[in-house]
Amino acid sequence: MKHKDGKYNSQPEKPFKIVPATLLVIVLCGFSFYLGGIFCSEKSRLEGKSVQDVSKTVSSPKEPAVDPLQIKSMAFQECSADFQDYTPCTDPRRWRKYGSHRLTFLERHCPPMLERKQCLVPPPDGYKPPIRWPKSRDECWYRNVPYNWINKQKSNQNWLRKQGEKFLFPGGGTMFPRGVGAYVDLMQDLIPEMRDGTVRTAIDTGCGVASWGGDLLDRGILTVSLAPRDNHEAQVQFALERGIPAILGVISTQRLPFPSNSFDMAHCSRCLIPWTEFGGIYLLEVHRILRPGGFWVLSGPPVNYENRWRGWNTTVEEQKSDYEKLEGLLTSMCFKMYAKKDDIAVWQKSSDSSCYNKLAEPDVYPAKCDDSLEPDSAWYTPLRPCVVVPKPELKKSALESLPKWPERLQVAPERISNVPGGSSSALMHDDSKWKVRAKHYKKLLPALGTNEIRNVMDMNTVYGGFAAAVIDDPLWTMNVVSSYATNTLPVVYDRGLIGTYHDWCEAFSTYPRTYDLLHLDGLFTAESHRCDMKYVLLEMDRILRPKGYALLRESSYFIDAIASIAKGLRWSCHREDTEYGVAKEKLLVCQKKLWYSASSSSR
């Protein structure tokens, strides 16, 4: 160590004294005992509190406190008047972007996210609340569906007739100008199963104004009327305005949005579908959705060509060739002729496995579809030139094996075993639950069960429980199963109900103002991670009739946010408890306001 003079001291430094270090250790130990005493006394104080007090202080990890979703209030502008019949995914404004081969431009082509409309679709000038069922089957307000073109083109065939402020529907059609009643009477003579409850569900391809489906309602048969979007005829819009089930669609390059083996009957009355072209691929799609033992009914070319060919701008030789080609295709698909009289021919889809076994032989056309093609895959699924063979293990799904209507509604279908957790007891429990819920709904919404509500959609059904609970009311229900959810739609059809696949991130295949009641049960809980709530509610507003209702059953987490958006849609809503008053789930009962565009003379 250096001194001030810079010299080093040769002597080492003296060590620290021991006494002060010992005292430091004693002081630190004493302080630690003091702190320990404070901690122990506080611990004893906490342990002395009751369990109830502790539970108030610390929330349970199993049920964390979650604040409801909050969304700022928003107001939506009105769409311009030329959007009054806007169908986003089948919009004629966008047809030129798609090819005309096999009419692909008529299929679903939804706009990209940046082109989606965020406005409210206005009603036509002079719109009135629809005429109520059953009177609506025979007449509707002209201003609600203001298409005079179809009146001029089809008046000679008795499709409809304009009289004053109304369209009247005499019940005629291209192949039944004397009336649909006489036409269906003849059909029932050919198919006795239409009279005894065996035939319950039907699809009408190229439905006109849905007079065939409307007539069958009184005969206990529920029909999905199918037609594409068009610029003039608006067939589906007329059907729904009348209170008859219908949906936009076309058999083109993609499967129809229905499961396999679903409909008991399919019908085409001069629907202009080229059945024998493209290797019979359109017939193959009818075969897929038709139940084994089900019936395909064709009236119009080339049936009865011997007497009709002169009116078809063709020759008898051409029509004979077309008919023989049609018969050959149907036979190769395991159809057999069931009955024929005058202009009506009926074929039946075989439920005999021996015919389908032959389709596995080499060089057979059409061949059996391989196992990689899921029979029920039907959301943007391309058509394939092969036969979807009924599964041999499903022996009770053929038409002749199902209970007759209405017993069919209450019996657990065979295909419920394909649903995870599905069983007879599960269906019974679901039905019991929905009976209680429907009773509660009618207390909150007295219009439910009256003719004020006719067209109903259950936006995310499971087994069709809500539709079953209101089956005796003067309404029909379109049961929607999400294309991303468990596939339960075959069960819905096996029960004698109707429905469709759909993805609620996109617009539904219908015209604006076509439903009186929209019902959902936990849709946003299930789909909010994929679908923007705002766009789903805007789509609900588009398809809901003015003065129509929305019944939303949702988690308490979403209810406030839904109510906030609904206010911007000009809906009036009130929040209600569920039938059991549970806190985690609430009901929102809403009604859409009738308003007119700023440019409308009806304001």
TrEMBL record:
EC class name: transferase
Domain of life: Eukaryota
Cellular compartment(s): Endomembrane system; Membrane
GO molecular function per UniProt: methyltransferase activity
Mode of membrane association: Single-pass type II membrane protein
Keywords on record: Glycoprotein, Membrane, Methyltransferase, Signal-anchor, Transferase, Transmembrane, Transmembrane helix
The protein's Enzyme Commission number: 2.1.1.-
Listed transmembrane segments: 21-39
GO biological process: methylation
GO CC, alphabetical: endosome; membrane; trans-Golgi network
Similarity comment: Belongs to the methyltransferase superfamily.
PANTHER family: METHYLTRANSFERASE PMT21-RELATED, SAM-DEPENDENT METHYLTRANSFERASE
Designated name of the protein: Methyltransferase
Organism: Gossypium aridum
